[in-house]
Amino acid sequence: MADLAFSKIFQLQGLGSLIIGQMSSAGEAIQQFMTVLFAYLATAHLIGASLERRQVTIFTCLYLLWQFSTLLVFGIRSYSTSTTIAAVHALDANVVAPPSILPQVITVSWVVLLLGALVASLYFMWAVRHPKSE
User: Fold this and answer.
1) What is the tens place of the pLDDT at every residue in 7-42?
2) 23: burial class by Cβ within 10 Å (0-12, 13-18, 19+)?
3) Looking at the domain assignment, is residue 134 inside a domain?
4) Separation CA 85–CA 89 (nearest Å)
5) Which residues contact 74 (CB under 8 A, 6 or more apart)?
6) Which of 8, 11, 18, 115 lies 20 to 30 A from 85 at CA?
7) pTM
8) Is 13 contained in some domain?
9) 132: three-class secondary structure by DSSP
């Protein structure tokens, strides 16, 4: 009986450390996204108006490719975290389960927020390259 209890405790501890690792990986994806976003904004502000159209196109395509891949990584890591949380709840019926839709809502909220920041950064580059004449 004690052996069974200890094995269940070790399973829960292992899954708990796995959840923490996956959450930190998702946080790192957000940090990478924000770092590249602010680099793009700084470039747009400092030299955006003097770049040629071809340079802006290449720079923006690389930027979008990087950001979309980072968002994909974030989504996968967040989904893995919610799957691991569900596995913990399946292992131990005594653990009070949060609403099952909450991790997905949080993930979708972050993705929408980051996509909004992506669109805003593209608009900023457009505004720098095409200033309104007063």
Assistant:
1) 766 666 666 676 777 778 888 889 999 999 999 999
2) middle
3) no
4) 6
5) 26, 29, 30, 33, 107, 110, 111, 114
6) 115
7) 0.76
8) yes
9) coil
* 18 inside domain: yes
Question: What is the token pair recorded at 127?
Answer: 């505004």
Task: Count how many residues are written for the chain.
Answer: 134
What is the C-alpha separation between 75 and 83, in angstroms, rounded?
Answer: 12
CB contact at 8 A, 74 and 26: yes
In sequence order, which ranges of 1-134 are alpha helices (DSSP H)? 2-47, 53-91, 102-129
Distance CA 112, CA 78 (A): 14
Find the domain containing 35 and state its range.
2-129
Count Cβ atoms within 10 A of the Cβ of residue 125 and give its class: 0-12 exposed, 13-18 middle, 19 or more buried.
buried
Count of domains observed in the chain: 1
Calculate the alpha carbon distances from 41 to 12, 29, 50, 88, 128 in Å.
Answer: 43, 18, 14, 41, 10
Give residue 100's pLDDT band: very low, low, confident or very high (50, 70, 90). Answer: low
